[in-house]
């Protein structure tokens, strides 16, 4: 049941892809439905500059799913048992209680709402919110904390666990750094301006450095204009409502980030969700939408906005941008691309997925991204043509009501962006981008060799390793921390119930030695906990880009 | 009973055997007919409605969407921003002109404070700028924990939680508790972030007239009647009152003691947004609870941003652990956003230190507010909106021309007149189409402790002059 698909990375092929999509439709019309199977792009053969970027989502053996459900079943049953014990007073309830004066109020939380938190999350919550006390660079210091009451409360011991390798932070290009020479401009800005702004952009919070940053962002992305906002999450949630409203349709990928979903919900537009990165699903929805219009009234939609992410943060998959652009052009929809994780992190010069696919940025109507990840700062941007940005400048919720971005953060972004762009002839930025790409390639191929199931695109620095079973998730995270490696694990409800995973974020700042250490420990822990679920045969020497390895199979 | 039933059954079988063949055939046909009627469609909706592929292609060809965004005219009042060069502290350079700042929410003058800057700088040297992760995934720094416990201590509550953006604080907090089907009673003058939070919560929203406790009482009574009709539903419907301490849009204070009475009378929880009153009202700057001497535990949740008095970035919620802790898994802006840059958190801690060390700062601010308030009374053509204690006042046209645009332009001329004479003011900006109850156009006058008496004098006379020159 290996589902592999091949993507062609060549801007010149957009037209051909368009045809392929047309062909696919023709086939369907004749009754030859291909299902998940994707057509090879024949035109790619013999093109010298072609690159393949395989994206795989290997399915686990059946027994794994059964055991996972069983695991959840046992924990849930145990939870009910504990709840029963608490109800009859045999077990002490550690959760904070409502005040006496307000006991008669309608309960703040329903009992079942907190079942999961109380009985499952509490047992394992030492794996999240681990406090750190150093720079979030390639290695960091964790504050040791212990719990005397099975995770109901934590106590900081005052000791630190030093030099833990950081595989969790989104520090893709290593700009989370505290080198005084690099940060000189930021320090100067802090001394000159202080840290706040105390006004919104439309009132008196529009500093000249904001305008400088916006010109730089537009330059960097190769678009006409850009606008920046103080928080990445809010960039989505406060600007989508300015773009679409009632009578508009949003087609949203099922794995889109919460901020996109919130923005879509606040906009009042109709939202339909298509299957993750599934172009058939998207095209079907587009076709239906244009043909049958709005529900009940059957009026045509005012506009259709497709919302996708560049790199999906939990899957490591890359949006199939060439096909999406072809579809959007065919159906006259607009495209909103959230590059929170991809800007700076992919593409030969770090310009994100448009560059990865060699597309013209003008083909994407709304380019959104954040500065939190690759730039080691905070905030977000929206870029596109002049009309879009002018409209946002006058109608964005953020510009009117929220405090403007703080000057030291602005300076950090400017510094990082100039470094990536190689302004004043430095090559540090481009080296870091290459280093990240190399780290990604190395780490991913080694994991595959070891037999882990990993998700996502080969060029994505977000690497999820599937762990499946709830018990293993926790054991994995604790075992890795014991080996001084900080990992991020996520399970239900952030992922589907059977697909709990650990997520590694690679950084250009990781040295080969660090990665080797991580891989070595991963290998051992993987054997100890039986985490190597892959049944794929991969030759020991990675002949990774050999076409025959990626036979299509439906 | 049982034997009787058996007898009926036997009789039926017997009757079946005895019935004539034509009868059975007729009945059989009837049964088949009924089955057919049951399973067939009398009308053929699908077929008449189905489009052929060609028709679909034509529809796709024909459909013309609206442009992504409407064109903004070049002279749209909110398109061209004033450009500020240099720090927007006591003095501010707007469009190249150095002015005394009456336009920033820097009430305590902490933006330009050397101690705050130094603390931020020290933090920068250790932690760099960004946190590169949400709180859950190694984005929790010791500075964050310290700031949270300091805020809780300052406000005398059990717990505090920080957000990385002021606007997202209350906008995330409300939907963390109030869900679909719950009821929120909210003041009409509530600021935009509250409105967005309410919208995200998908709860039933009931607006009461601004600061009108009778109106709120009426709504609560109505709800009580409703609850009597359906007690089962009432038992699971959470109710909240959402108010602001010091209103952003009207510059007056909510009647908190009455609200607390209502709370216990009708068993409704109170959420209080204190972005303007935190660090302003009360003897120690603890906000509107301290101002009225209300027990802070009676308020279920207090939210404020650290972008005004504290002059940093971000926001926080505080209250009892029972309430606040829930946001650590349910506050969207908390869970899914990168955490606050440590240097900004460090700056906020230092600001809190200063506020704790020197509570006189609040007395000074109060005095300045009152003197500005009284001095601005009787400006010809302009009405002062707000209470004497508010550092954020509004100047509104006494007589509106009837057109919002004209009013805006008139006010803008006053602002420009003052800018010429080195007094920086700003027009309060709103999204006119998005606001639930759009406030009238006003000029903001913001008081800070840095403004000297002479400067206040100058500004007041300048505003009066401008009003005379522009309005008459």
- Euclidean distance between termini CA atoms of chain B: 101 Å
User: Termini distance of chain A?
Assistant: 7 Å
Form type of chain A: globular
Count every beta strand of chain B, where a strand is a DSSP E run of 2 or more residues: 16
Helical/strand content category of chain A? alpha/beta
Helical region count of chain B?
A: 20
Radius of gyration of chain A: 25 Å
Order of neighbouring strands in the sheet with most strands of chain A: 6-12-11-10-9-7-8
Output mean pLDDT of chain B: 92
- Weakly predicted, low-confidence segments of chain A: 1-52, 542-554
- The level of helicity of chain A is 25-40%
Structural class of chain B: alpha/beta
Q: TL;DR?
A:
The complex is a heterodimer of chains A (554) and B (472). Chain A contains 16 helices and 17 strands.
Protein described:
The complex is a heterodimer of chains A (554) and B (472). Chain A has helices at residues 14-29, 62-87, 115-124, 184-193, 208-221, 232-243, 258-267, 279-292, 321-331, 353-356, 386-395, 397-401, 407-421, 428-450, 470-482, 512-528; strands spanning 4-5, 55-56, 131-132, 139-146, 155-166, 225-229, 249-253, 270-274, 304-309, 334-338, 366-370, 380-384, 456-457, 462-468, 485-486, 488-490, 500-505. Chain A has 554 residues and is an alpha/beta fold. In chain A, helix 9 links the parallel strand 9 and strand 10. Chain B has helices at 2-18, 21-39, 45-49, 53-62, 114-127, 135-139, 142-155, 166-177, 192-201, 213-229, 231-234, 256-266, 288-292, 321-324, 327-330, 332-335, 342-357, 360-375, 404-420, 453-471; strands at 84-85, 91-94, 97-101, 140-141, 159-163, 183-187, 204-208, 239-244, 269-273, 301-305, 315-319, 382-385, 392-397, 423-424, 426-427, 442-446. In chain B, the strands form three sheets. Chain B has a seven-stranded mixed beta sheet, sandwiched between helices. The interface between A and B is large, with 124 and 121 residues. Strand 3 of chain A pairs parallel with strand 4 of chain B. Chain A: Keywords: Acyltransferase, Membrane, Pyridoxal phosphate, Transferase, Transmembrane, Transmembrane helix. Chain A: Residues 163-522 form the Aminotransferase class I/classII large domain. Chain A: Its cofactor is pyridoxal 5'-phosphate.
């Amino acid at each position: 049941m290996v589902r592999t698909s091949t993507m062609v990375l060549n801007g010149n092929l957009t037209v051909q892809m368009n045809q392929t999509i047309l062909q696919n439709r023709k086939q369907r019309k004749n009754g030859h439905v291909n299902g998940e199977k994707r057509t090879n792009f024949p035109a790619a053969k013999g093109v010298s500059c072609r690159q393949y970027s395989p994206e795989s989502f290997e399915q686990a053996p059946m027994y794994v799913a059964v055991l996972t459900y069983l695991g959840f079943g046992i924990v849930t049953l145990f939870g009910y048992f504990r709840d029963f014990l608490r109800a009859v007073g045999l077990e002490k309830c550690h959760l904070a209680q409502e005040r006496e004066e307000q006991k008669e109020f309608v309960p703040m939380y329903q009992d079942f709402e907190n079942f999961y938190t109380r009985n499952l999350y509490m047992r394992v919550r030492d794996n999240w919110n681990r406090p750190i006390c150093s720079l979030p660079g390639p290695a960091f210091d964790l504050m040791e904390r212990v719990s005397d009451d099975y995770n109901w409360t934590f106590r900081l011991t005052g000791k630190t666990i030093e030099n833990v390798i950081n595989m969790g932070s989104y520090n893709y290009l290593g700009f989370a750094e505290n080198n005084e020479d690099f940060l000189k401009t930021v320090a100067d800005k802090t001394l000159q301006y202080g840290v706040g702004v105390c006004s919104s952009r439309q009132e008196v919070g529009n500093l000249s450095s904001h305008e400088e940053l916006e010109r730089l962002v537009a330059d960097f992305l190769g678009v006409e204009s850009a606008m920046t906002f103080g928080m990445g999450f809010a960039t989505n949630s406060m600007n989508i409502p300015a773009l679409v409203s009632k009578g508009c349709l949003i087609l949203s990928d099922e794995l889109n980030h919460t901020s996109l979903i919130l923005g879509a919900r606040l906009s009042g537009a109709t939202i339909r969700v298509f299957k993750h990165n599934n172009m058939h699903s998207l095209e079907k929805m587009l076709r239906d939408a244009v043909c049958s219009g709005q529900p009940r009234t059957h009026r045509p939609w005012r506009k259709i906005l497709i919302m996708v992410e560049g790199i999906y943060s939990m899957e490591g998959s890359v949006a199939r941008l060439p096909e999406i652009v072809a579809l959007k052009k065919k159906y006259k929809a607009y495209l909103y691309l959230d590059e929170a994780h991809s800007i700076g992190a992919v593409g030969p010069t770090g310009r994100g997925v448009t560059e990865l696919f060699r597309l013209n940025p003008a083909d994407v109507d709304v380019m959104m991204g954040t500065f939190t990840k690759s730039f080691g700062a905070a905030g977000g941007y929206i870029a596109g043509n002049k009309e879009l940005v002018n409209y946002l400048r006058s109608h964005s919720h953020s510009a009117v009501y929220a405090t403007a971005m703080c000057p030291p953060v602005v300076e950090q972004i400017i510094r990082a962006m100039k470094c990536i762009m190689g302004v004043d002839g430095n090559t540090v930025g481009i080296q870091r981008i290459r280093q990240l790409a190399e780290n990604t390639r190395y780490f991913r191929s080694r994991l595959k060799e070891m037999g882990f199931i990993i998700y996502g695109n080969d060029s994505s620095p977000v690497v999820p390793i599937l762990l499946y079973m709830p018990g293993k998730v926790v054991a994995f995270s604790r075992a890795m921390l014991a080996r001084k490696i900080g990992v991020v694990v996520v399970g239900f409800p952030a992922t589907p119930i059977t697909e709990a995973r650990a997520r590694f974020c690679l950084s250009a700042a990781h040295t080969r030695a660090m990665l080797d250490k991580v891989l070595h420990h991963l290998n051992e822990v993987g054997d100890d906990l039986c985490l190597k679920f892959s049944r794929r045969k991969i030759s020991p020497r990675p002949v990774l880009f050999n076409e025959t390895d990626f036979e299509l199979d439906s | 009973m049982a034997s009787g039933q058996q007898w009926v059954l036997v009789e039926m079988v017997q009757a079946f055997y005895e019935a004539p063949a034509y009868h059975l055939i007729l009945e059989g046909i009837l049964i088949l007919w009924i089955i057919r009627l049951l399973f067939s469609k009398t009308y053929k909706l699908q077929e008449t409605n189905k489009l052929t592929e060609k028709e679909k292609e034509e529809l796709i060809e024909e459909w013309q969407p609206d442009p992504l965004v409407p064109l903004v005219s070049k002279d749209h009042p909110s398109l061209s921003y004033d450009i500020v060069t240099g720090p927007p502290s006591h003095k501010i350079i707007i469009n190249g002109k150095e002015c005394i700042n009456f336009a920033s929410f820097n009430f305590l003058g902490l933006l330009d404070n050397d101690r705050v800057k130094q603390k931020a700088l020290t933090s920068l040297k250790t932690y760099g700028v960004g946190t590169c992760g949400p709180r859950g995934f190694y984005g929790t720094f010791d500075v964050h924990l310290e700031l949270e416990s300091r805020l809780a201590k300052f406000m005398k509550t059990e717990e505090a939680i920080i957000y990385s953006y002021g606007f997202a604080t209350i906008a995330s907090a409300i939907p963390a508790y109030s869900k679909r089907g719950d009821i929120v009673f909210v003041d009409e003058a509530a600021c935009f972030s509250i409105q967005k939070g309410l919208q995200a919560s998908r709860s039933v929203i009931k607006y009461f007239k601004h600061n009108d406790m009778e109106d709120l009482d009426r709504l609560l009574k109505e709800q009580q009647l409703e609850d009597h009709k359906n007690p089962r539903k009432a038992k699971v419907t959470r109710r909240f009152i959402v108010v602001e301490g010091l209103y952003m849009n009207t510059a007056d204070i909510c009647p908190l003691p009455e609200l607390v009475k209502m709370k216990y009378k009708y068993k409704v929880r109170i959420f209080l947004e204190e972005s303007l009153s935190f660090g302003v009202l009360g003897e120690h700057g603890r906000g509107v609870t301290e101002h009225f001497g209300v027990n802070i535990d009676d308020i279920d949740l207090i939210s404020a941003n650290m972008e005004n008095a504290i002059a940093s970035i971000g926001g926080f919620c505080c209250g009892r652990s029972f309430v606040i802790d829930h946001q650590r898994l349910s506050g969207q802006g908390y869970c899914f956003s990168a955490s606050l840059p440590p240097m900004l958190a460090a700056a906020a801690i230092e600001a809190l230190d200063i506020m704790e060390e020197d509570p006189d700062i609040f007395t000074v601010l109060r005095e300045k507010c009152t003197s500005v308030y009284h001095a601005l009374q009787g400006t010809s053509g302009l009405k002062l909106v707000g209470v004497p204690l508010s550092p954020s006042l509004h100047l509104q046209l006494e007589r509106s021309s009837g057109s919002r645009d004209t009013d805006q332009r008139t006010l803008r001329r006053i602002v420009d007149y003052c800018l010429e004479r080195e007094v920086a003011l700003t027009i309060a900006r709103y999204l006119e189409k998005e606001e639930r109850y759009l406030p009238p156009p006003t000029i903001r006058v913001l008081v800070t402790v840095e403004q000297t008496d002479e400067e206040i004098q100058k500004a007041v006379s300048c505003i009066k002059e401008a009003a005379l020159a522009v309005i008459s």
